[in-house]
């Protein structure tokens, strides 16, 4: 595995690989890797000749009162995990190399990013889109794998690729969970043992929503009420949002008469966690139609 530190070296390497006819797979991360990240690497590894992983804690997607400085980092551990995952190139740049002091060009999505985490974290997705666009230009991937845990981010990146004509296939990786159902996240490290137990309420609320839907409840408000009651009863857990949105457009819905994304964001103590699930199945034909509509 080769470790690359500068954008220019990464781009020159990628362009050489492209000239050699190699298929490049890419998994962008912010490090402190866990099994969720590794599952994305395995998906990419199966579909490419060369696997590139980036580790970059992107400052432009953090708000002024968020956890940029405290975000967990352990490069040596991450490096070892990438070697085990048979990563070919690990791109590990410094922020000063990724952003000029007078940087003034940004990539902003104006529809999907206005709801859910976009409403709670203004400017977050501008930072996400900008850094992913830069990484695509540097890594030159044929395919890039993003996890479904960050469902809104995934759909925004899919829209950016469509609207800006990036020649990149976006591959969705399923949510990976701990044995008790908590979605894997680098931020889980912040949780105390008691908070860690309390955080399971996210998955329990999603499971309750699934049970109600399967029993025939298709109106959103009764399901939301049960979820809110379950989560609000747990100590140290404060709800940011529980929303039901169209699985692709992220428009709010009142009734589950199509595939609907149930998205949750909470704070457990001071730690912000997200989770989601989809109610209503998509037929093969509908999946193709949705992909074409992206």
Written overview of the protein:
The protein has 294 residues and is α/β, with parallel strands linked by helices. It has helices at residues 7-19, 35-45, 75-84, 95-98, 117-120, 124-139, 151-163, 193-198, 201-214, 220-232, 284-293; strands spanning 2-4, 24-29, 50-55, 89-91, 143-147, 169-173, 237-246, 260-268, 271-279. It has two domains: 2-173, Rossmann fold, CATH 3.40.50; 186-279, Pantoate-beta-alanine ligase, C-terminal domain (Pantoate--beta-alanine Ligase, Chain: A,domain 2), CATH 3.30.1300.10. It is built from eleven helices and nine strands. It has a six-stranded parallel β-sheet, sandwiched between helices. Mean pLDDT is 95; it is low at 283-294.
Keywords:
alpha/beta, Rossmann fold, globular, 39% helix, 6-stranded parallel beta sheet, 3-stranded antiparallel beta sheet, Pantoate--beta-alanine Ligase, Chain: A,domain 2, disordered C terminus, 294 residues
Mean of the pLDDT scores?
95
Here the CATH topology of the largest domain equals Rossmann fold
Highest CATH level, the class of the largest domain:
Alpha Beta
What about the largest sheet? 6 strands, parallel
Percent range for β-strand residues: 15-25%
The DSSP helix count reads 11
* SSE run: EHEHEHEHHHEHEHHHEEEH
């Amino acid at each position: 595995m080769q470790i690359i530190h500068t954008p220019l070296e990464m781009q020159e390497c990628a362009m050489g690989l492209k000239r050699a006819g190699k298929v490049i797979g890419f998994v962008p991360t912010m490090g402190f890797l866990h099994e969720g990240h590794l599952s994305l690497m395995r998906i990419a590894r199966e579909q490419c000749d060369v696997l590139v992983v980036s580790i970059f804690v992107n400052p432009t997607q953090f708000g002024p009162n968020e956890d940029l400085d405290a975000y967990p980092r352990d490069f040596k551990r991450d490096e070892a995990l990438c070697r085990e995952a048979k990563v070919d190139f690990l791109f590990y740049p410094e922020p000063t190399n990724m952003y000029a002091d007078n940087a003034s060009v940004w990539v902003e999505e104006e529809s999907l990013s206005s709801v859910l985490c976009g409403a709670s974290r203004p400017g977050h997705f501008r930072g996400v889109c900008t850094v992913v666009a830069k990484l695509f230009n540097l890594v030159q991937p044929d395919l890039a794998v993003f996890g479904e845990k960050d469902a809104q981010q995934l759909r925004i990146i899919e829209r950016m690729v469509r609207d800006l004509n990036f020649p990149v296939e976006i591959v969705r990786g399923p949510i990976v969970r701990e044995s008790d159902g908590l979605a894997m996240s680098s931020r889980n490290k912040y949780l105390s043992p008691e908070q860690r137990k309390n955080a399971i309420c996210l998955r329990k609320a999603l499971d309750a929503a699934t049970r109600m839907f399967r029993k025939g409840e298709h109106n959103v408000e009764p399901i939301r009420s049960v979820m809110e009651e379950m989560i609000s009863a747990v100590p140290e857990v404060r709800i940011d949002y529980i929303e039901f949105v169209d699985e692709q457009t992220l428009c709010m819905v009142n009734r589950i008469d199509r595939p609907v994304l149930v998205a949750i964001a909470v704070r457990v103590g001071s730690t912000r966690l997200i989770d989601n699930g989809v109610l209503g199945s998509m037929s093969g034909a509908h999946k193709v139609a949705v992909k074409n509509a992206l």
